[in-house]
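Q: (4Fe-4S)-binding protein, please. Structure only.
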Amino acid sequence: MEINANKFSNKEVTVTYDPCTCKLSGRCYKELPEVFMDSVIPWVDLEGAPAEAIQEQVNRCPTGALKFHYKNPPVKVSKEEQKQKAKKALAY
Ligand code: SF4
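A: Structure for (4Fe-4S)-binding protein:
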């Protein structure tokens, strides 16, 4: 895991933290203590939970101090594209 004071990365995701924006509500470390910790350094352990759970918790940060990014974002496929792919697969 790559570590600097306000940026945490593993091979899949990056979480950044803006201490000037954080209001120390404690929501992140109370709701997902496997990842966000209040008494150790580094205080973010990206191996503590699946990426989806980390993303959900980051989205609950009331101030936007936490940001989440996939290094290779999952490809979103529309329902129409899914239907077309299914039709093509059935045609062969
Ligand atoms: S949830 Fe956001 S505002 Fe609250 S302590 Fe964590 S980073 Fe700071």
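A: Brief note, in case it's useful. The domain at 2-91 is CATH 3.30.70.20 (Alpha-Beta Plaits).
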